[in-house]
Fold:
Amino acid sequence: MTSRTFFFNILRFVFLIIFQVLILNHINLGGYINPYFYIYFILLLPFSTPRWMLLLLSFVLGISIDIFTNTIGLNASACLAMAFARPFIITAISSGNESLIGDTPSLRTQGIKWFLYYSIILILIHHTALFYLEVFRFSEFFATFARVLLSGVFTLMLVLISEYILNTSSK
Structure:
């Protein structure tokens, strides 16, 4: 990882935490849609990030959100679940004859199909862990499942819009 990439990731980390805490945490549409865009940081970490670093950064990201939202480890555990699954998901959706292009996962380098699979799976892992740990009972299984899906779709839309904006501005 170059120093430029390292610096850019630090800026992204700080910006996403501030954006999540000050703006997105105040969006709650009908009790079912809560955008969790801060996980975009985990999605865009370079492929070469060692697993221990991936887990550490994800924990720090999640616990930072937990500190500001007083949720006592919910976001940290959901981020850790997402980070733990990330290398396996990358391996599973990347065929053997296809190499991962570029330094980081992105819509432009990996293509729409790969990036959609990657994002959808990891977002759903994060949201499932977060919402089911928050509720912590099966009596509200379907209501929580609806929250997972609706918030996941909203978060995915934010990720895709950001990818489009970042990819068109960098050309």
